[in-house]
Known about the structure:
Layout: H1 2-23, H2 57-63, E1 66-72, E2 75-81, H3 85-94, E3 99-106, E4 110-114, E5 124-128, E6 132-136, E7 140-144, E8 148-159, H4 163-170, E9 175-183, H5 185-189
Antiparallel strand pairs: 1-2, 1-9, 2-8, 3-4, 3-9, 4-7, 5-8, 6-7, 6-8
Amino acid sequence: MKRIIVFLLAFILLLTMPACAANDAGSADGAPSGEAAPAEPPAERVNPAPPPAEASPLSMQENAGQEIVLTVAGQQLSVDWAENSSVDALRELLKKGDITLDMSDYGGFEKGAPLPEELPQNNEQMNADAGDVILYQGRQCVIYYDKNSWSLTPLGKIAGLSRTELQSLLGTGNVAAVFSLEKAVQNRRSR
């Protein structure tokens, strides 16, 4: 009988210990006494990314009819541009004139070059793929022709080209990429 009582008490004690440890704030960093603090806080607490910057109604109205055009190796590409403050800032920069970048290969999965000015970042953890046009660290413009995972700012996505076609267009050496502004189709027709 004593063995059964001892067994039950030990079992109850084991059930209540995790609950006590969860409420124990015995160390300065909040880790339970006798345990090392976790190496890093849970992912949801680590530098939470600010929500992507939304384009204000005023900036959307000012930029209406101003499409960013990307021409690579002399071929104008169809790009679905992101709606964020980085693209708005690129559009503002292009009002000063076209930007020609001498893009070089990096890592066997992207072509990149520095922009003339830093743009605001809207970083998000993403899995970049062929056709993604990315802003890296606020200053580097990158066109992906393969996969990569990192915290990046999406600028746009090249449409209508397969991975193979994009790799062929970008080539093996440096390539010229020209960013420019073009008035919307309806504005061109009214001329």
